[in-house]
Amino acid sequence: MTPEEFERERLKSAADLDRVRERASEEPAVRSTESVLGPREPVKEIESIVPRSPEAPAWNPPAPPDLSPVNESWPAGGPRPSSGISTLLDGSREKDREAQVKFNADQVQLDNALVSWTAAHFAATHTHYDAAIARMQKRMDDIDTRHRELERELVRHVHDMARRIDVVLGEGEKGRVSHEAALRSIRERLRALEEMLG
Predict the structure, then answer these.
(1) What digits encode the pLDDT tens for the residues 43-66?
(2) Predicted local confidence at residue 7, as pLDDT
(3) Per-residue pLDDT tens for 174-186?
(4) Residue among 183, 179, 171, 178 nearest 30 (CA)
(5) What letter would DSSP give residue 91?
(6) Cβ neighbourhood burial of 13 (10 Å; 0-12, 13-18, 19+)
(7) How far, in Å, CA of 144 to CA of 157, rounded?
(8) What is the DSSP letter of 32?
(9) Cα–Cα distance between 101 and 105 in angstroms, integer?
(10) Which long-range contacts (CB under 8 A, 24 or more apart) does 24-28 make?
(11) Backbone phi, psi, residue 36, to 5°
């Protein structure tokens, strides 16, 4: 090989090495995530406005019974005369007995009304509490449903993120392997040039 040919080969090899070095130092073409992973799945919007639970019924206890009949019949008769004969003659004992009977009847009616009122009061209390507890349970069920939806959405996003990370790591590994292959090729060509020159 003449010195001119040798110089030509050396310059050609140097140009080839420069070209390979430039290609190896260039950043690999960045591909969009959509081209690798496909279109991004839309995020499922969970309704931000929670449907209102039905209002608990108003607390409507029954009205207490009327005490006026018993209170009006309480003073059973007027002042009593001092002598027993005059009492028998004017019939005040009979009036006292009738007043007492009326008072007793009013008292029994009041007792019965109080028993009914107490039972109705307890029934209204239980109805009100049952409605309030049912309303709270419905709200808790709504919260549980929203939490389950959020949990499913979070799991989907984590899986999507893991898939994307795997793709990025795979792309990085491909770039590393291609750079190593380019370096091996350069070493082999250098070795071949050294053998040609040596």
Answers:
(1) 666 565 555 555 666 777 888 888
(2) 79
(3) 777 777 777 888 8
(4) 171
(5) T
(6) middle
(7) 20
(8) P
(9) 6
(10) 24/179, 24/182, 24/183, 24/186, 28/171, 28/175, 28/178
(11) -90, -45
